[in-house]
Amino acid sequence: MEVERVEAGRLELARARLGEWEPAGGVETAEGATRLEVLAMRAGEANGLRYPAEVLAASVQAGLWRGAAVFLDHPDALDATRAGGRTLGDLAGVVEEAWYEDGVRARLRLAGPKGPLVAELARQWLADREAGRAVPRIGLSADLLVLRDAGGLVRRIQQVHSLDVVFDPAAGGTFLRVLNASDGTTASQPMPEEGNPMSTNEVLSSDGAAGAQEPALSRELALLQCEHALNAALRDAGLPEALERAVRQRFAGRLFHPQELGQAIAAQRATWAELLEAGVVKGLGEPRPAARAGVSGMLDELDRVRLAWERALGLPIPERYRDIPRLSGIRELYITLTGDHEFRGRLFPERALLANATTATMTGLVADGLNKVMLQAYNRREKWWQSIVVNRDLDRFQDMKMIRVHGFSSLSTVNEGAAYTEASWDDVMETASIAKKGNYIGITLEMIMADDMDAVRTIPTLLGSAAYNTVSDMVSEVFTANAGLGPLMADGYNLFDATHHGNLRTAALSLEEFDNVALAMMNQTEPGSGRKLAVPPAFLLVPTSLRSTALTIRNSTYIPGSGDNDINPWYQGFEVIVVPPWSDANNWAAVASPTQVEGIVMGWLFGRQEPEIFVADSEVMGSMFTNDEMRIKVRWFLCVGVADYRGLHKNNVA
What we know:
- Among the domains are: 1-188, no CATH class; 191-275, no CATH class; 299-380, no CATH class.
- The chain is of the alpha+beta class.
- The protein has helices at 53-61, 115-131, 219-237, 241-251, 258-275, 301-312, 330-338, 359-380, 445-449, 453-484, 511-522, 547-555, 622-627; strands at 3-5, 12-21, 27-30, 33-41, 44-46, 49-51, 69-72, 91-100, 104-110, 138-148, 154-167, 389-394, 400-406, 426-432, 435-444, 504-505, 537-542, 575-578, 588-592, 600-605, 612-615, 629-642, 648-651.
- Helix 3 (219-237) packs parallel to helix 5, helix 4 runs antiparallel to helix 5 and helix 8 packs across helix 10 (453-484).
- Helix content is 28%, strand content 23%.
């Protein structure tokens, strides 16, 4: 897997190439164009990254897959120098349609120079695989831009760049069915679909021989069918771990009939129901596992209510729990958890439908759902600052210290038998204070009685947008504070100082002036030795009014307005970042890569890079008692500072 990280160990954008899927369906031809049905991606772990089902479903709903190009092979080093990062010579088709069904499924229309080759390759591969012959390890790899955290959990798919037909993808796989080219019907006996193993027509005898309906299948292929059917059936059954292990031990590694597997699972479910007899709760669907029974693995009633609440908020939930009914609104949630039909603002345990409900159950469940809605709103917009900052985790509430050591210009020569000489060095320390950011809003008893779900959904959405604007403004103010001169540094001068820091100019944005700024940045020196850093700008920061000018400078092959068609030396040599909070229409800035010069640093208390929602109320104290109001508080501890002025340059246009 190839991952491009903005900052290792932090919440980051990672461009991941995933070999998580392969040709999963058949080939059909319509109006002269070959079409493939494929399983693009399944939920789960792939190459160290974890993809929740709701993230995949959201990417389909957002239309990210439709229109993605299909290429033969991954891009090579030469492709990286081309506009768009790919060559048209490798184009093989396009994603016509995508939908979510036990994963991301898609229909591809093959076209372009490599389309016929991919079509023939897919036909032959599917035919050989169906006949039980050896096949090459070919598949498809999704080229994605994803938002992930330090633990490898993917929070969101930002963009689907392409689907690449490759050899030996990172994760193996198999097809689901073969379709006739003319009418789309099944051409031959399919392998069981993982999402519906009991609907297939295969007949596999339990004594170890393939049934009469599968004469073409080898024993190896038949075993593979059974393995897929077993995994899918156990996943859908949702048995506790111990009971699932018993079924797996009985059927693993041998041939069986689907009916036999179904009967075994039904028997285990009956056993499980007997264990749960003491914990049955009516009105909430599936029974709650009794604590004394010692069984686990299924959703209890609190989990089901939580998922029903999240559905009411419009949040995606795992595909396997789509059968859980949606709550009508916060009124139903309140009555279910508190039993307070008269809306007195207190808990009635004897009337609550949820076993073991406490005064904290309602507030905790509401907070969990609203927190997810808030984070969805916070992560919806592109975080323009991510590429130019360094993230640090802070383990205590005190000023963030940024220490820059200098003095080691080069290593000294040591002659044979001679002693090493001690090198001299020095350091500069900058600091930044942690700020506590937050607000609270109230969900009143009147809102609950009126079942005002529009207001309930809007509140966390506004908090998420406010959190985004908070970080955006804090980073933006590094460039705009003190009339555009930036914060005061440890040396007593502002960040942007023409005389003492050499990083402030006044000319308007143009290719010539950008070149002057780049030269000034590369001429920055190491204190003590005077050695030049030679670090060019990697990012051009502009207000919305200068976006077109900046993109023209970046994307013009030749110098704009040049009569001799002189080559543009900065063609695609940097990235353009639009800074929404900037109000001045003419000022702009340049920033070096933070991996080369650590400039702007963001500190996050205890590593929490996203805001959190808290609810703290009791029926006998606080705002629920005095104001009939459940208060939702959002809180965040963070800071922004500058470690080194040499990677930052500002033009305050006169």
